[in-house]
Amino acid sequence: MDNRVGFAHCGSFDEESIREALESARDNAKFATPDEFAGLAEPDGIAATPLDLVDADFHRALTQQKIALAKELEKISLLGDPRISKIESSDYADVESEGFILNTKGIKSHTWATFAYVSASAVATQGEDTKTGGGYSVARGFGGIDLNKAATDVVKRATELLGASKPTSRRLVAVLDPRITATLMAIVGGSLSADAAQKGRSLFGNRLGEEVASGRFDLMDDPTEPLARGASEFDGEGLACRRNHLIKDGVLQTFLYDSYTARKESRASTASATRGYSSTPSPGPMALILRPGTKSQSEIISGITDGIFIRSISGVHSGVNPISGDFSVGAEGFLIKNGQLASPFKEATISSTIQKMLMGTIDIGSDIEWLPGISAGPTIAIEEMNLSGV
Hints:
- By secondary structure, the protein is α+β, with helices and mostly antiparallel strands.
- Helix 2 (63-79) runs parallel beside helix 3 (147-159).
- Strands 7-6-5-10-16-15 form a six-stranded mixed β-sheet. Strands 4-11-12-13-17 form a five-stranded mixed beta barrel.
- The mean pLDDT is 97.
- It has three domains: 1-38, no CATH class; 63-159, PmbA/TldD superfamily (PmbA/TldD fold); 164-390, no CATH class.
- Helix content is 22%, strand content 32%.
């Protein structure tokens, strides 16, 4: 309204609540600061990719069946190894989401998706040593859950680092577990938001067209991939989702734009608007995918004489600066000796910068893992990181 944005939301579909929300939005617009780039998204002629994101039997699973599934995961995990002393948690959750976006510019979109997962966390003991580990399985509905996969993961991750010790401090090759890679890609994806770049909060700054990663590095945001948790036919403004190649052969191709940030640079939106019903749109990743390579995890490890395999990290929120790229987190995993996993290590810190980690990626595995969040990643090997222990 006169380049002013007014926003309001309600938690009910009754006519009175909707009418009050509309009135509040109009009133809020009167007091907003004019912004020449404000406005609604307009159709761009790109058709949506049809996606089947709904489990047909989603509503057939009874509450008692879901509870029984979580209990069964607890039981299988406890029996998986005598060193498992207890299960801290065993959960089942599912969600169905449906949305409609219509505006006076001609946008008309409908999204509908279901999602389900189980997860568990176990405690393992060996003498006086105690470790925890977790596993999960995700699917579009109850029937797609793989309980044995989740339990196997729980047991393995809870027990494999028992008997670990602090490693010797040095610089060496670091191999990241797919879950760690996915976490790293989520951080990188946040820095590829056009809003972050325009506000000077991106480590990639004005580096479009420049080499920002190893030549084998291809990062996409692809909400049209049905395996992705964030898959969707439309973005938060009603534009058809599409695959956006963010980094190709190591070169930065684009940032992620919604209609507002695109107008600020006279660009087209990349259909990357994200939002909830109670918030205005902002650009961000929906389904980040680091293109997998051809080697298995064991093949990557077999080519390393002296290195570390990082199974888990901690302190990401406090130890990673997405603006400067500084990266320093707690880590646990295994030493790599002559192409084999050797003794486990704990209470260590790994550090570098995100820029060096991307440029130093020397191998990418074929074992891509889809997480419940916005990113998926395979095993990757980084040429050099600092390991701090004793």
